C-alpha cells in the first residue's frame, strides 16, 4: 500500500510539472510515461473507488501532496479524488493549456485525445481558451495567412477545426464506402451548434494541411443547398473569397448562390429605394460587397466573377443603363470601386 501511495505522490508531481515551465524539458518518452501513470491511476480509482479504506488512504495522501506542491509550484491547482478518476483528461488539458510544452509533442497529445476520447470529449478540450491559443500558435507556421488577415478565422475556430480535421482523417481510413464517409461527416458536424458550425467549416476549408477531411467537409457543404446558403450568409465575404481561391468547386457554387441572390432583386424607383431583395437580410449593399471582394481576389477568382457577371448581363438584355438590370448595375458599381 505504501508503494501505491508513494506512486500517487509522484504522479501529483507529474501533473504539477505538466502545468509549469519545467514541462519544456519533456520529450516524447517522458510524455508517454506520464500518460501511462494516468492510465494506472484511473484503473486504481475504478477498481478501489468503492473500497472505503483504500479511498481514504488515497485521499489523505492527495491532501499531503497538494499541500506540499502548493508551496513549491505557484498557482498549483489541488487534485481531488474525483479529478484523479479522469486524470488522463486532466493531464492532456494541462499540456494543451501550457505554452511551455514543446510544439513537437502536440501531435502525440492530440493523438491521445483522438484514441481515448469521443468527439464530445474533444469539444470539451476545445473549450479551454488556453488550449485554443496554444494549438493555434503551434499550427500558424504552416498556414499561409494569420487570423488577423481572415475575418472570422479566430483561434477557437481554428483549434476546433484542427481537431475536427484530425477526427475525420483518422476515422475515414477505417471506412469502405462514400456513404459511410458522408455519415461520418454528418455525425461529426452534428456536434456543432449552428452558430459554431460556420466559423469551424471556414477554418477547415482554409487549412493548408487538412487532407481528405477538407474534401469531405466541402462535399458535405456543396451537397446541401440550404447549408451552403447559410454558410455564405454568415461567413465574412473576405473569408469566402479566400475559400473560393482555394477550391474551384466552392467558387462555382458560391457564384451560383450570388446569382440567386441577384435574381431576387427588384428595382424600386419610388422613394429612391433602388434594388430590393425578396430574401430576408439581403440588400444591394451586401450583394455588392460580396462581388467586390471576389473582384479584388486572386486572378482566377476575379476572372470567374467577371465572366459570370458579363454572361448574366448578356442574358438579361445586355443593357448599359442604370436601373434596368441588376447585373449591369453591379458591373457599373464595381468599376467605380
UniProtKB/TrEMBL annotation:
Record-linked InterPro entries: FANCF, FANCF_C_sf
GO biological process: interstrand cross-link repair
GO cellular component terms, semicolon-separated: Fanconi anaemia nuclear complex
Top-level taxon: Eukaryota
Matches recorded under PANTHER family: FANCONI ANEMIA GROUP F PROTEIN (PTHR14449:SF2), FANCONI ANEMIA GROUP F PROTEIN FANCF (PTHR14449)
Protein name: FA complementation group F
Originating organism: Latimeria chalumnae
Gene: FANCF
